[in-house]
Design goal:
alpha/beta; Rossmann fold; Alpha-Beta Plaits; 4-stranded antiparallel sheet; 12 helices; elongated; disordered C terminus; binds adenosine-5'-triphosphate; AAA+_ATPase; Putative ABC transporter, ATP-binding protein; nucleotide-binding
């Protein structure tokens, strides 16, 4: 088991991870989700003893990593698939790692077979594709046949077949009773791979729950309603009637309305009573990716000025979640501007709070007004239709161990 308690990491005036507490249990795949720069790699590096926490602690099997007896046999990790000497073959690379850890050479051929690189094992790794590099990194993680495995973005660069293979491998490793901790940007991928989810934003815990609970609490239904084009007064009349009846009404980009908090038959009745004709009244379900983006939107560091995710925010004054057949999808717990969701008891929901400023008069942390008084967060854009879940993984490089080497340079 991996256990983090009050884990905090500051790099100068930058708070990368703040007061993070969680447990990663054996026998399950635990997904570690968060936007770019949210602190996933930093957390993984602290678990592996590569970075020293500023406060708090993290243990693997009850020991801090550096005190773990025979660590390479107990913990395997893929942090940076590019951290390979390009002049060496895959086999030579693994042999070196095996020798350093007292692992017999035959295990190298075993893991090469497991990851499907046996036919290119003697080729120089500098000619490897991103996907082959990921496979080699996974082979290195498996080398010591460890009970605890950490994978930072393992599907990065893999084709659909490779993604399926990683998914099945993670599940198999967990079914053997191992602790499998895997980071990703993609909720949709984690929904298929993980049993448990730990979601962070700006280094802080946003959710710690089973995937099953995440799905049941976030796959809320909504209705789309469309009034005749070119008759805006009909749309306004309907908006007023639905809002008065307790529904939340958000305009969609194509002119339709997104209604939560009211069942379909009630919407139909209200439209009839208000004498509004409907061109569309249809049931929909929010995607998990959308729920995840809503949960993390207040904690996104890097956002295009044209990013429509800002439109996932509820308009000011939107009511609390309603029950019913088309209840509102719960917002991010504790995220400013969001409604807390009805999460099950025992779910860790500390809420997003600005970490206190680092000592010694350093610059304010994330989200705090910058020195000139400008807000660190872009202002919320008017509500627009949320974008469809991205079909491709965001083009992010895998977490980079060289970050550590560059620490002084930063
Ligand atoms: N060595 C370092 N020195 C200074 N700042 C750092 C260092 N390592 C990470 N950071 C900062 O800490 C924050 C968290 O970074 P981290 O790489 O842990 O996030 P991440 O969730 O893994 O991001 P990504 O998904 O983009 O890999 C970022 O703002 C990053 O710039």
């Amino acid at each position: 088991m991996i256990e983090a308690v009050g884990l905090t990491k500051r790099y100068g005036d930058k708070t990368a991870v703040y007061n993070l507490s969680f447990q990663v249990r054996p026998g399950a795949v635990t997904g570690f989700l968060g936007p770019n720069g949210s602190g996933k790699s930093t957390t993984m590096r602290m678990i592996l003893g590569l970075d020293e926490p500023t406060a708090g602690h993290v243990t693997v099997g009850g020991y801090p990593f550096r005190k773990l007896p025979n660590a390479p046999r107990q913990v395997g990790a893929l942090l940076d698939a590019k951290a390979v000497h390009g002049g060496r073959s895959a086999r030579q690379h693994l042999l070196c790692l095996a020798q350093l850890s007292g692992i017999p050479a035959r295990r190298v051929d075993e893991v090469l077979g497991v990851v499907g690189l046996q036919n290119v094992a003697r080729k120089r790794s500098k000619g490897f594709s991103l996907g082959m590099g990921q496979r080699l990194g996974i082979a290195a993680a498996l080398l010591g046949d460890p009970q605890v495995l950490l994978f930072d973005e393992p599907v990065n660069g893999l084709d659909p077949e490779g993604i399926l293979w990683v998914r099945n491998l993670m599940k198999q490793l967990a079914s053997e009773g191992r602790t499998v901790f895997v980071s990703s940007h993609l909720m949709s991928e984690m929904a298929l791979t993980a049993d448990q989810l730990i979601v962070i934003g700006r280094g802080q815990l946003l959710a710690d729950m089973s995937v099953k609970d995440f799905i049941s609490y976030n796959s809320a239904d909504f209705a789309r309603v469309r009034t005749p084009d070119g008759e805006p007064q009909q749309r306004e009349k309907l908006t007023a009637a639905l809002s008065e009846a307790g529904g939340q009404v958000l305009p969609e980009q194509d002119g339709a309305l997104r209604i939560t908090g009211l069942p379909l038959p009630r919407i139909s009745e209200l439209a009839h009573t208000a004498d509004v004709r409907l061109w569309e009244l249809s049931p929909h379900q929010a995607s998990l990716e959308e729920a995840y983006m809503r949960m993390t939107q207040g904690a996104v560091d890097y956002r295009s000025t044209a990013d429509q995710r800002a439109g996932l925010q509820q308009p000011p004054g939107a009511g609390a979640p309603q029950g019913g057949a088309y209840g509102y999808a719960p917002g991010a717990p504790g995220v400013p501007g969001q409604q807390p969701g009805p999460y099950p008891p025992g779910t860790v929901m500390p809420g997003y709070a600005e970490p206190p400023a680092p000592p010694q008069g350093a610059a304010p942390p994330h989200g705090a007004p910058a020195q000139g008084g400008a807000p660190a967060q872009p202002p919320a854009a008017p509500p627009v239709q949320p974008p469809a879940a991205p079909a491709q993984p965001p083009a992010a490089a895998p977490a980079d161990l060289s970050k550590r080497d560059n620490e002084d340079a930063r």
